[in-house]
Amino acid sequence: MTTASRPFVPRAVGTPRPRPEGPQKVRGTARYAVETADTDALYLFPVQAAVTRGRVTAIDTSAAEALDGVVAVLTHENAPRLAREADADHGVLQSATIHQHGQYLAAVLATSSETAREAAALVSVTCVEEPHAAVLDEDSPDLYAPGSLVVGATDDTRGDPEAALAAAEVTLRRTYRTPMEHHQPLEPHSTVARWDGERLVLHDATQAVSWTRQAMAAAFGIEESAVDVVSAHVGGGFGSKGGTHPNTVLTALAARAVPGRSVRYALTRQQMFDLVGHRPATVQHVALGSDREGRLTAITHDVVTQGSRISEFVEPAAAFSRGMYAAAARRTTHRTVPLDIGTPTFMRAPGEAPGSFAGESAMDELAIELGTDPVELRLRNEPDVDPETGRPFSSRNLVACLRRGAERFGWADRDPAPRARLVDGWWHGTGVAAASFPVVRFPGSEATIRAAGSGVYEVEIAAADIGQGARAALTAIAADALEVPVERIDLRIGDTAYGAAGPAGGSAGTTSWGATIVEAAERFRDKYGDDPDDGDEADAATPDNPWASDYAMHAYGAHFVEVAVHADTGEIRVPRMLGVFAAGRIVNPLTARSQFLGGMTWGLSAALHEESVLDDRFGHVVNRDLAGYHVATNADVGTVDVEWLDEDDPYVNPMGTKGIGEIGIVGVAAAVANAAHHATGVRVRSLPITLDAFLE
Amino acid sequence: MKVDVSLTVDGRHHRLAVDTRTTVLDALREHLDVTSPKKGCDHGQCGACTVLLDGRRTLSCLSLACAHDGAEITTADGLAPDGELHPVAQAFLDHDAYQCGYCTPGQICSAVGMLAEAAAGAPSIVSGDLTAPVDLDRAEIAERLSGNLCRCGAYAHIVDAVSEVAP
Amino acid sequence: MKPFAYERPDDAARAVATVAADTGAVFLAGGTNLVDHLRLGIAAPSTLVDVTGLTSAEITDLPDGGLRIGAGVRNADLAADERVRRRYPALAQALLAGASGQLRNMATTGGNLLQRTRCSYFQDLTTPCNKREPGAGCAALEGWARHHAVLGATHEPAGVACVATHPSDMAVALVALDAQVHVLGPDGERTVPAGRLHRLPGDDPARDTVLAHGELITAVDLPPSAIAARSAYRKVRDRASFAFALVSVAAALDVDAGGTVRDARIALGGVAHVPWRATAAEQALVGGPATDDAFRAAARAELVDARPVESPRGGTAFKLPLVTATLAATLRDLAVREETA
Fold it and tell me: Residues in chain A with pLDDT < 70?
């Protein structure tokens, strides 16, 4: 909660409202990063390593430089030096060492995109190759326990789980696998960079202009105030545009060579598989101990995940099992095998997405083992307090989601027998899975509110709209905080000119920025009342949540899906999905539905399609385009129902929001696998679920 | 190697000298500053660059500008006069059939082209009877728009929007 | 992408003469595969010779009751043609199962036949490929092999190995329907059966077809065929739409009143370097009962010499039961349809 003295009364919040930028987006006139470039901007095209580990021994750029229209060719031999503070991922063109396939080895600047690309192909690179590792092997001698996770401890043990498993009336031990996946936002990562003296001006496709600014300041050894980052419209992010990747550093580095002139670089789709992060593959060992009535006595969830030698990112997949169900004994662990590949990163519901596939598949397997309905099994293991922290829940409506979903889906009529419903040559089945996602608040946002005359308020915050609908949502929050109609809010986002701000990530954007805006509105009204003079201005930073250490805060959900598997060919379809969510107050019902729907579609896509095939002989992803790396098409999606339960949580923040960007994906893959088992009797414990699993 | 081409884009006539390697997409985006069609994959695998070329939905990323001298191109920005919206675009707004907006102009051009194809009686692979009149139910719309990927996952809303406009 | 010249000759003969005389020249039609390859660096021609408008874009009735499809007919127009839909439904379905609405508006009949494999190692200049660079080796053999061949592939020796598949759906239907391909070369015209247009990799995987450099497809003839009206195309893929086939079947079936197969036409997609005419399966079926067991036995007869790729990164062994299942399902549907007709 904030220092707020006035209660936040939702008026605009909770009312469906189209996106203010909608008319521009449907016409295509909203400008994304690279579309802001001026006409004399130079095109950058990189030269990438074709080996996975080794050293550049010679690099010949003469043929490229000889080409008409080529302005410069940068290599590690002539590129400007970066500051020592640069992140390990960002040491672009600083040495001859090759850490990964696809690493940038040179960059061509030219006056046309065609020339830049042609010239890049003329750069001749000679390398010595060294042995590399690019396969996730649980028995690797390099396997290690990371120091910590992004959230929470690497390992967490309560009680004596092995003893509890040994003593349990029913014990289930299973191994689940999830593949490497790539975000692949439809807008490729892209940057326009220009140096005005010692000032760096960037237009960047980013989920966090402030984070990009920090990364650039560190990379170039300049003050953050010397970096401007603008990102008005972002064509999807899903985590890959959260952190700053080598492409942005490369573009800014190359721009150093042509002071005062813009350099533009949009990645090719193929490059999107090399350099901008991925969700790492996991192997997950889950064990559940239970009594005959289905009350869990032990849960263990041990994860081995693929990492990178360049820098550490650990997929926190076991964290999902720390809070879902009551059990006296519990162990969750994470181990990583560092490989010679690019660094993994956050991808929509990091941890929860792969972790819930294992955890919620195992619950289904246990329900079958016990002969208990899988909804009922989950109800029986509802905890009174958060199993991880021992704190009470600020609100937890998983049970209500499961019950409401079961009712709406028609679950009561379900015959649990597998392989029992053949309709027109397709085996049909239904499945359920539960979902949760933590309520996150990023510190460090700043908001400014200014009276602009005629009753209009300018509200500035360096938030990002990556498609979640920040403009509509924050406008509504600002209007309610100032108790004025939305028409009187002039919201400005996507620019470091508006100060620091947390990312559009962690399902925390609306919560973090909204709480900051509410705080600024409080201060504004305290200072100037409700009839301010033109130019009156107040600002605020993100307030701490005073309840943060008193309550466990999560959103919850339940997924119900129907699956059909062709009796001959094994083709798998998902004709029907239902998601019921309890995720705090919904700010904009129109766009919120899209977020839940989008998350569920992601879940479906992960369940059936997505897999980056890392060919360890070469060290790179070989299905490196959108024909090879399948994401769901329109035809893969059947009817998708979304419902949310009203939830009034006074502890999360003044608006009562919990975050809805990621929970839609959590649990979907398990629900699909569970339904596929119900349809066919075949249990698939490895994603994606493809037709070969069902062939006889 | 440069060649002169003339293109009519959203009703405006342009004459330009382009590299033979320049695609219609790059001619629009890089030479004419028409950025409504988007570059998503540059290989015909995502549909974000869809425009109406001589009235048919076409992937501008796989079309060389030099091979389309004299072409008439309509982007999502040219479907309706300034200040107005094409009914398909309006339906996208009403149903929130988009999130990040990057695939959206291509989706809308594709939908407009698709509706014309269906009106002319073209079947799809999910049409049970290839010779029966087209009934644009949800499955038909979804199949016919499957050349347009939406990574935000707005498909169900896209089908809602197009259903509203479909006959 | 290397620079290239662009030419648009006045007629097909001149286009053929231009390409035949210049090893660096290639034909450009719909561009959906060539532009893709230019950008990937797989193709680096010095001249593009645009044949758009130089071959017919019409579908005409032949005196014998067949159809002539101009090489310039777009896939969408071919699929939508009333005569094709009624008389050659497998062809309409194959076209509609391919690519996307936009691509079908662009791709031509001639170009579709000549599209090259989508093997990811062929498309990736950093991995060895005998088709792209003869003698370099085949990365697909021990690679990601989900889309690779199980019939007629070359597994050894390493310098010529190739397990690529032909990606066209349309071509599979044309092979099953006994289409004839008209070709114009510098020395005049010739006709090649669709089933002999493509070639197995043998010891020269770089060559996809029997056409010589400079030969241009001008038209495709569909012969009159009663059985073709009872044909279907079934495509099995990893997505519900917009994906290449794992396995596909183009089939036509004629069953007599007693339930005995009088005639059958079958071609398979996704299994070989060519659209694969399943003659062994056809022979196994004719004269036998139109039963599920017989359909499956016919598939097994076709697969006697099948050799899947056994790769640690996912092999193609699954394609054998998938061919059997898909063929059985397709033939069963055709038999039922005939019964109810």
Answer: 1-4
Q: Is the separation of the CB atoms in A616 and A180 below 8 Å? A: no
* Cβ–Cβ contact B43 with C under 8 A: yes
pLDDT at position A471 is: 98
At residue A1, the pLDDT reads: 40
Q: Out of B43, B131, B147, whose CB is closest to C102?
A: B147
Chain C residues with CB inside 8 Å of A570's CB?
322, 325
pLDDT at residue number B76: 98
Residue A89, pLDDT score: 80
Phi, psi angle pair for A55, to nearest 5°: -140, 145
Nearest CA-CA partner of A639 in C97, B141, B112: B141
Residue with tokens 């140096």: A195
Q: Which domains does chain B have, with CATH numbers?
A: 2-75 (3.10.20.30), 83-165 (1.10.150.120)
The minimum CA-CA distance between C232 and chain A, rounded to whole Å, is 16
Q: What pLDDT sits at residue A579?
A: 98
Of A30, A237, A268, the CB nearest to B101: A30
Say which of C52, C97, C106 has its CB closest to residue B125.
C97
Angle formed by the axes of helices B155-165 and A589-608, to 10°? Answer: 120
Specify the 3-state DSSP secondary structure of C115.
Answer: coil
Burial of B158 (0-12, 13-18, 19+ CB in 10 A): buried
Q: Does C106 have pLDDT greater than 80?
A: yes
Residue-range domain boundaries for chain C? 56-341
Contact A224, A3 (CB under 8 A): no
Rounded to the nearest angstrom, the minimum Cα separation between A331 and chain B is 35
Q: What does the buried/exposed string (b/e) look like for B22-48 if buried means 16 or more CB atoms within 10 Å of the residue's CB?
A: bbbbbbbbbbbebbbbbbbbbbbbbbb
CA distance A95 to A98: 8
As assigned by CATH, the class of the C56-341 domain is alpha beta
Best to test chain A binding among C100, C150, C293, C322 (most A CBs inside 10 Å): C322
Cβ(A505)–Cβ(A208) under 8 Å?
yes
CB contact under 8 A, B35 and A19: no
Residue appearing with tokens 């690099």: A59
What the block records as the tokens of A461 is 């915050």
Does residue C42 belong to the interface with chain B, where contact is any CB pair within 8 Å?
A: no
> How many CB atoms are closer than 10 A to CB C39?
19
Choosing from A169, A187, A662, A696, which is the catalytic residue? A662
Which pLDDT score is estimated for A2?
43
Residue A476's contacts (CB-CB under 8 Å, 6 or more residues apart) are A12, A13, A15, A17, A486, A587, A588
Contacts of B112 in chain C (CB under 8 A): none
Residue C145's pLDDT band, with cuts at 50, 70 and 90, is confident
Which chains share 3+ C-beta pairs under 8 angstroms with A? B, C
Cβ contact, residue pair A634, C120, below 8 Å:
no
Residue pair A436/A398 in contact (Cβ under 8 Å)? The answer is yes
- Asked if the model's pLDDT at residue C313 lies above 90, the reply is no
The residue in chain B having the minimum alpha-carbon distance to the alpha carbon of residue C233 is: B125
In this prediction, residue C341 has a pLDDT band, given cuts at 50, 70 and 90, of low
Residues forming a β-bridge with A641: A578
Band the pLDDT of B75: cuts 50, 70, 90.
very high
Question: Residue A571 and residue A564: Cα distance in Å, rounded?
Answer: 8
Residue A662 is among the residues annotated as catalytic for this protein: yes
Q: Do the chains contact at A597 and B156, CB–CB below 8 Å? A: yes
* pLDDT tens track for C261-291: 999 999 999 999 999 999 999 999 999 999 9
Mind listing the pLDDT tens digit for each residue in A334-373? 999 999 999 999 999 999 999 999 999 999 999 999 999 9
Query: Residue C45 and residue C38: Cα distance in Å, rounded?
Result: 8
